[in-house]
User: Which sequence fits this backbone?
């Protein structure tokens, strides 16, 4: 029963913006799952649901995966608007940005948790990514330059 309920919760939050536990409880009850608020609270914890801010300024439940997809989409747009040049030297990728924007772009890239980036360092208009090796640098530069087009 728990597995079915968890699947239904995921279906509900993907189909509807659910803002509160009470709203989730109502939707589950309407779907034939008679549960308590305490059960909903445990389910939210077990499913690792988070509250995300949508474009209208409202918070709603989502999965970590959904939030990662949102971060990725926002990053692409933000990146294209603020980055002016990308190059590499060995295992270091250098990204030039509009003045004052490097820290924000760097933080957004960090949020994507790319496994081949060992670390980043940011200044005012430039940040660097230390990569595992030169091939990773080439791959990252190629991918980032595609976002500029």
Assistant:
């Amino acid at each position: 029963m728990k597995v079915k309920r968890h699947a239904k919760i995921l279906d509900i939050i993907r189909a509807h913006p659910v803002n509160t536990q009470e709203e989730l409880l109502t939707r589950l009850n309407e779907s034939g799952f008679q549960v308590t608020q305490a059960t909903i609270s445990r389910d939210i914890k077990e499913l690792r649901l988070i509250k995300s801010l949508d474009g209208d300024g409202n918070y709603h439940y989502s999965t970590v995966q959904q939030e990662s997809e949102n971060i990725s989409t926002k990053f692409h747009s933000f990146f294209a608007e603020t980055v002016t040049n990308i190059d590499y030297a060995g295992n270091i990728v250098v990204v030039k940005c509009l003045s004052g924007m490097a820290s924000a772009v760097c933080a957004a890239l960090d949020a994507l948790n790319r496994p081949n980036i060992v670390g980043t360092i940011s200044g005012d208009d430039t940040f660097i990514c230390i990569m595992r090796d030169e091939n990773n640098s080439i791959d990252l530069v190629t991918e980032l330059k595609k976002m500029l087009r």
